[in-house]
Design a protein that fits this description.
Rossmann fold; methyltransferase; 6 helices; seven-stranded mixed β-sheet; alpha/beta; single chain; methyltransferase activity
Length: about 210
């Protein structure tokens, strides 16, 4: 089966920037109050109820944060380069190559799932099956936390993290994402939209949802 162009472009770009991406964002959480607040809420809600998947984990910086706070967490990423970087930076944690559109996990396997800026490279009209796959691997009552840039446009990236790349990123409306969640069987429990910081060009959104049933 031929992979969609956006999947190939995403894997290729993140393979190329893996090392510089990890270095540039390594300490980002230390100064981002809102990111920590949402992640800490997720940790408190999920607790020790079961395993958590950081789905689209990149170099594992959020995986490591969650693990340090007591979650039984592992990472999955489309990019082999990112997974290699994550294994190097967090040797005590498990990381696997995989696609959010077809996760190698059983139905209801996870107590929590994180999609931290990992939905933004899928065209909006193709997001519903991806969200359905995230919900499939959640146990009833399990939580999903996502973060993304707010807007309704496609941005084409030709240079990022010190490299020339070809990559599209989509800004999303919170109400659009909330609608996808509702259609897939999630109840949105919290939504936060914050102003962009000095290095950002758009507001940032977080949605925390629970699987019904």
């Amino acid at each position: 089966m031929t992979e969609p162009a956006h999947v190939i472009d995403t894997r290729t770009a993140y393979d190329l920037v893996a090392e510089s991406y990890a270095e540039q964002l390594r300490d980002d959480l230390a100064t981002n109050t809102w990111d920590r607040a949402m992640l800490d809420s997720f940790v408190e809600l999920v607790g020790t109820s079961g395993p958590v998947g950081d789905l689209g984990c990149g170099p594992g910086r959020i995986t490591g944060y969650l693990a340090a706070r007591g979650l039984d967490v592992f990472g999955v990423d489309l990019s082999p380069g990112m997974v290699a970087q994550a294994r190097q930076d967090h040797p005590g944690l498990r990381f696997e190559v995989g696609s959010l559109a077809a996760l190698d996990l059983a139905d209801g396997a996870l107590a929590g799932a994180l999609a931290w800026y990992s939905l933004i490279h899928t065209p909006p009209e193709r997001l519903a099956p991806v969200v359905a796959e995230l919900v499939r691997v959640l146990a009833p009552g399990g939580r999903l936390l996502t973060a993304f840039q707010v807007g309704d446009e496609r941005r084409h990236l030709s240079h990022a993290y010190g490299h020339d790349i070809t990559l599209d990123a989509y800004r999303l409306r919170p109400e659009f994402v909330a609608g996808l969640f509702a259609d897939a069987g999630l109840v949105v429990e919290a939504q936060l939209v914050r102003a962009p910081d000095a290095n950002e060009k758009s507001p940032q959104a977080y949605l925390l949802a629970r699987k019904t049933g």
